[in-house]
Amino acid sequence: MNTQDQKEKYLALTIGPVVKTLLQARKTRELWASSYLLSHLMQLIMQELDPNGTNILIPKVPSSVLQQALFGAGIFPDRLFMRAGSLDQKAVDQAIESAITKLIGDCTKPSANINTNDALKFWKAFLRIRYVILPLAAISNGKLSLDLSPYLESMELEDTCIFQISSGSEDYLEEVYKYIFDIPLSNRLKMGKGNYQHILKWAFFPSTMDVATYELFEQHSAELSALRKEKYNEIEENNEVFYQEIAAHDVLRRSFKPRHKYFCIVQADGDGIGELIKKLNNVSDYQAFSEKLAEFGAKAAGIINDYGGKPIYIGGDDLLFLTPLRSKKGSVWELIRALDAAFKAFPALNTATLSFGVNVVYYKFPLFEAIGDAYGILKRAKEYKSNNTKKNAVSFQFTKHSGNAFAAVFSKSYLDQLIKAQTVFEASNPSGREGLVSSLIYKLNTLERLLLELAKSVQEANPVNFKVKFKERLMATLDHYFAEWKKHPDFEDQKREVGNLLLAAAEELGVNSGSKGSRKPIFTTPGRDLSALGEQQSWLDLAYTNLRLLDFMTNSPKNNKADDQKSLTQAAG
Question: What is the DSSP secondary structure assignment for residue 81, as one 8-state letter?
Fold first, then answer.
């Protein structure tokens, strides 16, 4: 018998374009629709190829997950691996066309009169559905994914092509956006609104303004709901009206903070998943592993919702969601830690990790641009190395309303210190004084050269016992330069945590970090070109940029030198 005949055939399939489809979105509901459309398409293709679900290996989503609304988030990834059996090219092509035809029905308003042939032509041209059917001698040691994925990666390069609608044709993706409230595709979202259902009863999907002000809704839901209802038409036309009304409201304006005009786009991706795949040896291994990833995705959707976030895509180790900077449950940093803990709780996944990219932007920032930036921010986390540890990191970028930006990338160990400092800053707010953290940060800028030289000198004199000796010298230095505030215990707590953040940063990156490239002064925002951040970031940059964001999250500074100088004068009495 021919050796080739003894090999079982397997199908690997990829759909897209993912990034370009997401970048079509101008509103949050369009972002959800773009993402969910692709997830739903994969589900339809799976149903056409394997109605009984016995031959699909990845993605294998258990029925217990499928029965959940998951707050409307998509859970099916853009790649599929299955036993091909008797499937040939003709059968697969027919299954794909049938799936797209069903997708057209789900994306069309029931009362609309569209030309199905034109719509089919559009979607077949717009979508990138590519596949390969190959015989494999074995799928042990993860060979199913490892041997077939390179073919998919090559096919996905076609996504670089620019799709153009032919003259006289309709853009049916725009039709999805236009009728999103009424098409069947949105049914799952309507079933699982989550927290926003109780606060924004009129909202199909929360806007960037709704996400940014979620903490305010938690605190004053009755007042804000009344305001939204009364000014609904004006707010729909101009969201700035909403903030103007808050500023004029006796109750709401007292709780409003600048952070309520900013929201986060967060992307997460698994690290070390390839090593787990190498341990898969048979059909049941692949299916069980895929099911665990889907179960984590469902768990993650609930956690994100609890923190006031809105999950968009939760495909196992690949997450995309919107979230406020903070809610009653905690900040975006604590949300990341909660997702980490949930991931580790699955024994099949606990040797892998998650890296996160957090893009913090103004609520009026162009959504498509924020999404595009988020990919680069996550990439920095995936490429990060610290103390011989790769990945398992957090990267953030904070773009202010002015357009200036600052950024940082750090390990989960540093994240723990960041969360601890945030807790202290929020609890320690001396009565009658504002901006103490801001003034301290400004003073640190004037001490930049001193702190850098101090760290290097201690390192040279005490390479073995650096951490202990540097802590002694650093705390003594802070005590000397901030002696005027010793009478304020709350500020002493803040000062201690600033010192701990500086120590953690020096330990994380080393005192000689930032030597590659031309490092900019720590007070100067580096603009939007942050591609070389990992090489240019010094330990002082790391601490400083995180302090700037924590200051914004906790004490609502104006974020400029003039206000820092004013705060310094006020705090010094």
Answer: E
Element (H, E) at 376: helix 367-382
Neighbours of 447 (CB within 10 A): 14
Per-domain boundaries in the chain: 428-571
Angle, nearest 10°, between helix axes 448-461 and 539-555? 130
Tens digit of each residue's pLDDT (9 = 90 or more) over 71-89: 999 999 999 999 999 999 9
Q: pLDDT digits over 420-436, tens only?
A: 999 988 887 655 455 56
Taking the C-alpha atoms of residue 185 and residue 204, their distance in angstroms, rounded to an integer, is 13
Average pLDDT of the segment spanning 103-112? 91
Token readout for 527 is: 């603009």
What separation in angstroms does the CA of 410 have from each of 384, 394, 395, 414, 526? 8, 5, 6, 6, 17
CB atoms within 10 A of CB 180: 20
Q: Which residues contact 343 (CB under 8 A, 6 or more apart)?
A: 296, 300, 317, 349, 350, 352, 353, 354
Q: How far is CA 154 from CA 219, 339, 399, in A?
A: 50, 32, 34
The stretch 36-43 carries a mean pLDDT of 97
Q: Which long-range contacts (CB under 8 A, 24 or more apart) does 46-49 make?
A: 46/76, 46/80, 47/99, 48/95, 48/96, 48/98, 48/99, 49/11, 49/80, 49/82, 49/87, 49/92, 49/95
The CA distances from residue 380 to 374, 388, 441, 538, 570, in Å, are: 10, 16, 25, 15, 38
The SS3 of residue 515 is coil
pLDDT digits (tens, 9 = 90+) for 242-269: 888 899 999 999 899 999 999 999 999 9
- List the structure tokens of 511: 């005192």
Gap between the Cα atoms of 208 and 364, Å rounded: 8
Q: Torsions phi, psi of 169, nearest 5?
A: -90, 155
Kind plus residue range of the DSSP H or E element containing 156: helix 143-156
Most trustworthy range by pLDDT among 22-26, 80-84, 187-191: 80-84
CA distance 406 to 528: 8
Banded model confidence at residue 70, pLDDT cuts 50, 70, 90? very high
d(CA 40, CA 105): 12
pLDDT at 431: 52
DSSP string, 312-327: EEEETTEEEEEEESEE
- Cα separation, 338 vs 305, whole angstroms: 12
